[in-house]
Amino acid sequence: EDQVTQSPEALRLQEGESSSLNCSYTVSGLRGLFWYRQDPGKGPEFLFTLYSAGEEKEKERLKATLTKKESFLHITAPKPEDSATYLCAVQVAGGTSYGKLTFGQGTILTVHP
Amino acid sequence: NAGVTQTPKFRVLKTGQSMTLLCAQDMNHEYMYWYRQDPGMGLRLIHYSVGEGTTAKGEVPDGYNVSRLKKQNFLLGLESAAPSQTSVYFCASRSAGPEEKLFFGSGTQLSVL
């Protein structure tokens, strides 16, 4: 069974205090790993797609990395506006995956000024 | 630039009542999905569609039906609502580009009493 586990469940940071969020996964074969950001009362918003171990992608203060068993979302010098729930999801390989994603439970990030 | 639009945003039902949630996308995407989000459970796939006139079951399909009569619309129906269906429902559509992004609607908060 495909599983995605995110840690920690919640993370509180001071503004400027860098940290990382973890997403570990167990799948039969990985097509892609996705990161989304979700603000309260809104739908998830796409951040990154990673396809192969060693791949890295960056966007502003966020950097996502991928290994064969886990992904990290590194947040450098966060600001209060980075506060949100960060969701990790995997898509399994295979012709019948049809873009279906298996999501983790999310990490709630709070950045204090 | 509407993207994915869900209606209604909020709804309260009594046990046994029926309702339909509407999802509309204006991006000409082939693939569309219905997810539910519950505390501690993450997003779970209910049903999905890979094109007009097609539907398929996801991870948690029991108690729900769907239809995709037009490419831009994906309807989720509850024939006889149960308290266990109290949740936040998200519709999404997928782009065909290299990042295979999901675009989510803003959600429907449903309470079944």
Topology:
The complex is a heterodimer of chains A (113) and B (113).
Chain A: E1 3-7, E2 10-14, E3 19-26, E4 30-38, E5 45-50, E6 56-59, E7 62-66, E8 70-75, E9 84-92, E10 102-103, E11 107-112
Parallel strand pairs in A: 2-11
Antiparallel strand pairs in A: 1-3, 3-8, 4-5, 4-9, 6-7, 7-8, 9-10, 9-11
Chain B: E1 4-7, E2 10-13, E3 19-25, E4 31-38, E5 42-49, E6 56-57, E7 65-67, E8 73-78, E9 87-94, E10 102-104, E11 108-112
Parallel strand pairs in B: 2-11
Antiparallel strand pairs in B: 1-3, 3-8, 4-5, 4-9, 5-6, 7-8, 9-10, 9-11
Helix coverage percent of residues of chain B? Answer: under 10%
**How many β-strands of chain A, per DSSP?**
11
Gross geometry of chain A:
globular
User: Describe the biggest sheet of chain B?
Assistant: 7 strands, mixed
Overall pLDDT of chain A, averaged?
A: 95
Number of DSSP-assigned strands of chain B:
11
Number of helices of chain A: 0
The percentage of residues in β strands of chain A lies in over 45%
Low-pLDDT stretches of chain A are none
Mean pLDDT of chain B: 95
N-to-C terminal Cα separation of chain B, in Å?
36 Å
Q: What is the distance, rounded to the nearest whole angstrom, between the alpha carbons of the first and last residues of chain A?
A: 41 Å
The total count of helices of chain B amounts to: 0
* Structural class category of chain B: mainly beta
List unreliable stretches of 5+ residues of chain B: none
- What is the multimeric organization of the chains shown? heterodimer
Identify the notable features of this structure and list them briefly:
heterodimer; A: mainly beta; six-stranded mixed sheet; five-stranded antiparallel sheet; 11 strands; B: 113 residues; seven-stranded mixed sheet; four-stranded antiparallel sheet
Structure in words:
The complex is a heterodimer of chains A (about 110) and B (about 110). Chain A is mainly β and about 110 residues long. Chain A has strands at about 5, 10-15, 20-25, 30-40, 45-50, 55-60, 60-65, 70-75, 85-90, 100-105, 105-110. The termini of chain A are far apart. The mean pLDDT of chain A is about 95. The N and C termini of chain B lie far apart (about 35 Å). Chain B has no helices and 11 strands. Chain B is mainly β. Classes of the chains: A mainly beta (about 110), B mainly beta (about 110). The interface of A and B includes residues 4, 41 and 106 of A.
